[in-house]
């Protein structure tokens, strides 16, 4: 099928970048929360999955796809804000270990809520981008699907938007201030609680977008985000949990590693991908304990 | 302008402020003196709303003990915390911008003003605050507080960790700010000698109680107080 | 007489109180072991084994403050060690237990090394990696000659040896119950005496303040690695017994997967991290609440990862909500809650400070944090 090994290499690179874009997107969502509050949102993936179901329901009711996804992102935002204010914040002062358990509780709760509402029969969510049989172009002989290109671009746009949010807006400035020093943030009149909640909201919206992009290829089920979430957290920790750029680099790197391992390392077989990824991450962390781009500042957690 | 009465504050079960009373008049510089652990920082935090407190704190007709820190900043009370509290990962410029968080108009104007007052900060505007020297950080902390256009500035031990000559310069700046804009200043210090030189009035705090008060000149002249509380 | 009454730690009354509490718990287990029916005892045995693994995790999380989501790997490693030795090499099950313990201890020490450099969330994520990697290794076809791959190893059995009072197959349930109880008690004793020892106090120092501990001359690296090893060994022995009781091992057994890790951590936090009774109470709540919750709604067995769990549908929702509610109501775990209730009746005062002698003046002072009671 492939004329030569170069073509094959290009194909694998393209596939890797496509998968990596999704990981990068989801890792960005994790980073936005971690930067603000030093928390890891273990329910992130499930929130995204839930929102993808919302989007699917909305399209079934006749709304255009882009609007449905946008609305599902709003739902994600509200969910994020709500969860931070109702569950996470009250617990944070009481007991940090409790936040983790509560997040696990949320994970189960949201997952099973989706089962209760939408049942277990697989559903579909259409793709935002052309994803028919022959919607691709050839690059050095390798087939590049337009859908993959679309996802890649969405990820880049999102990175740019986040960069603009953090550096060009007042809210973004406040978010950076809160991430750096909560006490001083209070003293300049920032309502720290709301800034943290907004961080969770933004992350919820990004998670919803990620899930909506993933669902067309992966199929919409309650298991949609389980695997991708593990890869995304791997990406975030590889890149550095407080660095948006790191999340993207980490996500793409993991996508590529995955594609190359499956393609080239016959000895391992596909089943061992995650193990190899984690072994690489471990080595990176031993050299740089806060990831590739993470700041080396002392951890608050 | 500021009238504090019966102010109490505790860390858990330990009550640190035993109900203190003092006032800061319009355009006044008032200093609270006291040894380490007397409760000076606690007093500042109780006013700025960053810890639970009891009693009453009246600021221009508003009851501050019922307000949250951000509302207090909006009313025109800015605090320079002990240890400066600059945003070490943010640039000097961003530190000043975030100081103006409660305001939306004429921010650039003020920015230019404080850069001209503190030219050292202008030179280092793109540098991370964490990389500044102690004196520069203290300037930054004050400039940041000024960005909120306060009517009352709370300054917690600005001299801490600074060489005496830098402290003198700093105090001179504080006096200038006070004279130019009529902004009231509540200063907290261990360094009685320097502080009394710039203050109009002073209080002495000891284990959570006000034990002496008077004009700066009176306290400077009172040898028993100097010996008992100010370690001179 | 006014309540609460004061009782000094270590005084006769305090001892009596502890004995009564201990006696009541012991009575419960003895009664259960003698009178409960087969399935009741089976569930109680599972609970004890999870509690044993949780004791190990508690040592780590509660005492050094390191969060591990990788303990399912040690539980599974123990289980597979016994299963391989029994199933593939025909060993007597009892003899595989020491091998399990030593192997898990060694692997735990090795895994504990990177933990030295990592903190908080980073360590949690790396330990997730450990749990996931372990499951992948179990499924890996290149290791199938040893592990049985996705099929696992079946047909294990461990009949009570003749020196025990148990009567062969008929008493199998009781045999596993008493064995688990003994192992649990031993692990708890080891853990709690470690917490009280000088070594243990240095562990608390590690948790509360690394710099302070370093100043006290505690060898942080050694302490942390050793604790990791011990913690892994306890999970390992629990896993070994669990495999024999289950009569099989396969990669999808829930407590060998990441979910097992998560559930163990949930038990530790629910019980009260760092307390002696915490793991038992946490495991008890977990097993019985989960069981109750799964009865609330029909299970749906939805997700790949959920396979083998009884959580599904409404039950999952109830369980999720309960987890959150419990964390809210009892921020320091159930043991913390019980202690608060007890404080209404008796107040336990700390021991009177010992007069400093030349010998113990050199000892580090015990940190003020109360770890267990
Ligand atoms: N975060 C805290 N928790 C408990 N006690 C505190 C805390 N901060 C200060 N204290 C205690 O409160 C008292 C007053 O402290 P502080 O107001 O900081 O004194 P000062 O600023 O005059 O040196 C001291 O005894 C100090 O130990
Ligand atoms: Mg102070």
Secondary-structure map:
The complex is a heterotrimer of chains A (301), B (232) and C (373).
Chain A: H1 5-37, H2 44-60, H3 65-92, H4 96-118, E1 136-139, E2 142-145, H5 146-168, H6 170-180, H7 182-187, H8 192-218, H9 226-239, H10 244-264, H11 273-287
Antiparallel strand pairs in A: 1-2
Helix pairs in contact in A: 1-5, 1-8, 1-9, 1-10, 2-3, 2-4, 2-8, 3-4, 3-8, 5-6, 6-8, 9-10, 9-11, 10-11
Chain B: E1 2-11, E2 14-24, E3 29-33, H1 40-48, E4 53-59, E5 62-63, H2 69-75, E6 77-80, H3 92-99, H4 107-117, H5 119-123, H6 134-146, E7 152-156, H7 164-181, E8 184-189, H8 192-198, E9 201-206, E10 209-215, H9 216-221, H10 223-229
Parallel strand pairs in B: 3-8, 3-9, 6-7, 7-8
Antiparallel strand pairs in B: 1-2, 1-4, 4-5, 9-10
Chain C: E1 5-8, H1 12-35, H2 38-64, H3 71-87, H4 93-117, H5 120-139, H6 144-147, H7 172-196, H8 198-208, H9 210-215, H10 220-246, H11 258-271, H12 278-296, H13 313-329, H14 333-343, E2 346-349, H15 358-361
Parallel strand pairs in C: 1-2
Helix pairs in contact in C: 2-7, 2-10, 2-11, 2-12, 3-4, 3-5, 3-10, 4-10, 7-8, 7-10, 11-12, 11-14, 12-13
Residues 40-41, 82, 157 of chain B line the site of magnesium ion.
Task: Describe the structure in your own words.
The complex is a heterotrimer of chains A (301), B (232) and C (373). In chain A, 72% of the residues lie in helices and 3% in strands. With 301 residues, chain A is mainly α. Chain A is built from eleven helices and two strands, in the order ααααββααααααα. The longest helix of chain A is centred in the first third of the chain and has 33 residues. Chain B is built from ten helices and ten strands. In chain B, the strands form two sheets. In chain B, strands 6-7-8-3-9-10 form a six-stranded mixed sheet, sandwiched between helices. Chain B is globular and about 50 Å long. Chain C is mainly α and 373 residues long. Chain C has a single domain, classed as ABC transporter involved in vitamin B12 uptake, BtuC, CATH 1.10.3470. Helix content of chain C is 67%, strand content 2%. Chain C has a two-stranded parallel ribbon with strand order 1-2. Chain C is globular and about 65 Å long. Classes of the chains: A mainly alpha (301), B alpha/beta (232), C mainly alpha (373). Chains in contact: A-B, A-C. Bound molecules: adenosine-5'-diphosphate and magnesium ion (MG). Adenosine-5'-diphosphate binds next to β2 and α1 of chain B.
